[in-house]
TrEMBL record:
Keywords from the named record: DNA-binding, Transcription, Transcription regulation
PROSITE patterns in the cross-refs: HTH_TETR_2 (PS50977)
Superkingdom per UniProt: Bacteria
Record domain HTH tetR-type: where: 6-66
Secretion signal span: none
Protein name: TetR family transcriptional regulator
InterPro entries given in the database record: Homeodomain-like_sf, HTH-type_TetR-like_transc_reg, HTH_TetR, MT1864/Rv1816-like_C, Tet_transcr_reg_TetR-rel_C_sf
Xref: Gene3D superfamilies: Homeodomain-like, Tetracycline Repressor, domain 2
PANTHER family: HTH-TYPE TRANSCRIPTIONAL REGULATOR RUTR (PTHR30055), TETR-FAMILY REGULATORY PROTEIN (PTHR30055:SF220)
Species name: Amycolatopsis bullii
Length: 203
């Protein structure tokens, strides 16, 4: 792809991400993205082949954003456990910053949209590799770091998903967690730390 073409593609994806964040899934149409990009609907079709191609490209872009965030976390030289907890906290922040973006990545918010299997496998593998690398630093000798990373990721994903679900609805009286960010972060830290301890992850 020529640099000019890549720049034009990024312009449309920036517009699509802005629409998703600001208007939610209902606004994520070819027309809505074209208007946000200051272009015609025909130009969107020409670049992406239609809404399905646009959604696939946006799906990939959201994972690129997560990967870039996690890759930008510099590991410390000694405390691998703290590094792993930091990664988990940044993952939570990413999800909380845009639940709609996070839903596009891991749920089925767009009726009829199922990302291309090869694309889905590639973006998940690329992102998940970052978890494996951090887990390997603190995994017990002989332990399966890939399995441990998967168990830790599913714990993180479950805690984040539950928090987002509760935040999207009216607070319940006498719930386990008070409806504050501080309480949610504390519970999240405790859950992630408990899983790491259970997996035997240590410096």
């Amino acid at each position: 792809m020529r640099p000019a073409d890549q720049g034009g593609r990024e312009r449309y994806l920036d517009a699509a991400l802005s629409v998703l964040v600001d208007r939610g899934v209902p606004g994520l149409t070819v027309r809505g993205v074209a208007e946000a990009a200051g272009a015609s609907t025909l130009s969107v079709y020409a670049r992406f082949g239609g809404r399905a191609g646009l959604l696939d490209a946006l799906y990939e872009r959201t994972f690129d954003s997560l990967r870039e965030l996690l890759e930008g976390l510099p590991p410390s030289s000694q405390d691998g456990v703290a590094d792993l907890l930091h990664l988990a906290l940044e993952y939570r922040r990413f999800a909380r910053e845009s639940p709609t973006r996070y839903a596009l990545m891991f749920e089925r918010p767009v009726p009829g949209f199922d990302p291309d299997p090869a694309l889905r496998s590639a973006v998940l593998r690329t992102t998940f590799t970052l978890f494996i690398a951090r887990v390997q630093r603190v995994c017990p000798p002989g332990a399966d770091a890939r399995s441990a990373a998967y168990q830790l990721w599913t714990t993180i994903h479950g805690l984040v998903g539950a928090e987002l679900l509760m935040a999207s609805r009216r607070p319940l009286p006498d719930w386990f967690i008070p409806p504050t960010d501080e309480a949610n972060e504390q519970m999240y830290r405790q859950g992630v730390t408990a899983m790491m301890t259970g997996l035997g992850l240590r410096n």
